[in-house]
Amino acid sequence: MELSGAEIVIESLKKEKVDLVFGYPGGVVIPTYDVIQRTTGIKHILVRHEQGATHMADGYARATGKPGVVLVSSGPGATNTVTGIATAFMDSIPMIVITGQVPVHLIGNDAFQESDTVGITRPITKHNFLIKETEDIARIIAEAFQIATTGRPGPVLIDLPKDVQVGVAEFCYPERAEIRGYKPKINGHPMQIRKAAEMLTSAKKPVIYVGGGAIIAEASDEIRLLARKLNAPVTTTLMGLGAYPENDPLSLKMLGMHGTWYANTAVMECDLLVCIGARFDDRVTGNLDEFSPNSKKIHIDIDPSSLNKNVRVDLPIVGDVKKVLEQLIPMVERADTNEWLLAIENWKTEHPLTYQNTNTVHEEGMGGNIDNKEDETSIKLPLHAQYAIKKIGEMTNGSALVVTDVGQHQMWAAQWYGFSNPRSMITSGGLGTMGFGLPAAIGAQFAYPDRDVIVFSGDGSIQMNIQEMATAVACQLPIKIILLNNGYLGMVRQWQDLFYDRRYSEVDLRETNPDFVKLAEAYGAVGLRVFKDEDIENAWQDACKIKDRPVLLDMVIAEEENVYPMIPAGAASHEMIEE
Amino acid sequence: MARHTISLVVENQAGVLARISGLFSGRCFNIESIAVGEGAEIGTARMTIVTQGDEMIIEQVIKQLNRLVDVLRVVDLTEDNFINRELALIKVNANQNNRQEIVQIADIFKAKIVDINQKTLMLEATGNEDKIDAIISMVRPFGLKEVARTGRIALARESLSKDSPSPEEPLPSWEKERKKIPADLA
Questions:
Q1: ipTM of the shown complex
Q2: Among A327, A423, A554, B22, which is most exposed with the fewest C-beta within 10 angstroms?
Q3: What does R_g of chain A's alpha carbons equal in angstroms?
């Protein structure tokens, strides 16, 4: 059947089971938008900035595991996607970005709205393509999806000139994409796995360190089995939150720069560190020379270039994490870890996560309420971000889809919400992109229309893609935006406080922030303001009653508060600051 | 820091060279020389890169190259037996007084004279880098007008024995280190 290039694009997306595209039209993609206008089976979501489209596709992909699809125009439309593509690249998220391009004969001529999109995005995509012939479209789309979704996933960009969209060709979608240079290794080497099983069973002080790779591989059941069979504690990175239930006694919660004291100490003191789908990032290791000095290390990852990159490991195993664990678990026996677990229990009691108001120190409970005696005066103090997050965690049974922006609120959300399910924490970990939260939440809500989607954001981050409020309202999405509003760029202020003698430079937003409640209402959303800890529950119930538009809860928190614990950059975990 | 010669077979398509050089510059790996041309298989190109770095960096270079979709095969030739060659065209200032001396130097290095006029001579020299470096420094006192060097190209020697692994299908470098794995289990 002969179709136009634009029709082939849409038919190819349907073959890949795509039913949602986030995009923004422009001159060179009008041929494709013309086809979209009369297409059934694929819904197009009109965003308000191309960066929003990329973060929405990203949030959708993180929530479902399916690739998110973006369609934008050339020139500025394409360059506006760079941040979103880099965000997905750093966190290994499957995404297909289709950018329009000027006609082939004009490429390189400095044409109107032309940019070297393939050149600009080369370092931030897993691979990219410039299609020059209409008959190549189907094959390239098949290859793009194959590359984006297999092995270590990542964003793939397809640059599509206008005349290629208009040209006609026979439509024939390949059964399988054949790419001779690309063959990811799935099964682990049996001898390596046997060796790993021996090392695990004979360890006295093991720690299982789980990253985003375990979530991508859908391996949280296997992690559970391994931890319980072995009787070993589990810690996760920011990207691995939810891979292991945090209310389980074996959970050490998050490790790293703002991880728990006991997780970091366990990693320091362990004799065997099993890294599953994580990459020894600098936010986790701190000073490499002093990281986990006395342990043997096993590293299971699908990407060979992650092995021995930062930390020399004793036993690297390349393969899909789920498959490798399936091979490994039958060979593992219960290890002699009772003393180790007892030591860890003591650490948890002596060094829990805490936060302050001036009169009482609040401590985390193990799955319970905050058991503290509050002064009369504490009721008059500002609302606490940590309390709000923990309370919302309890009210949602830890089962909401939590999305965050970037900054102090992100770290508090990671510490206090309580994650037990994979794909429930959607956050920009690798790149740390402010402005990710609101559009990613929109993408996540499209993925799960019936689940609670919560965005924890800050007054700095929310303004970076605030225009997507219009998209959320237009699509009637009941996302709940918890705006932890302290009037500052909190994380930068914290660094200036701790390491630059409180010389605050360009972090004060207090005088110039808009009234966020009025701003939400101007977009047609609902805005509520919360001032006190004990108003949170009612505000949340009110927010949950609204089913057809976003709700923004402007939570006014203390202006200056720091995230603890903290291992300063380049320091070792014994230099952890607790308050 | 050791010098390593890395030979790659890549898809012969637009943008592949840019992707590979971008990989090196983006991750601050250095490229001492890079030579690329059509390869043996249809639609492929062979690239020879000389780079420097310690063991962990070279391991990363090889793995990052392997990760690229357009890269079909990567071999670190450094540890193996390999032949390396370079070609240089050297334009030297030469007049009737010193021309004979330059020709004698060329003869010693088995370089050819490929161009001549009243003021210059162009030499064509092939050999390994040390030989090219040597001939250039011998003719430099006469005045080098222009020099064009290709950079190193290299191929592994084929071994006579039947037991050693075929150089065309090397183990990726991180597996090479785990020499404890017998070849039949790899």
A1: 0.87
A2: B22
A3: 24
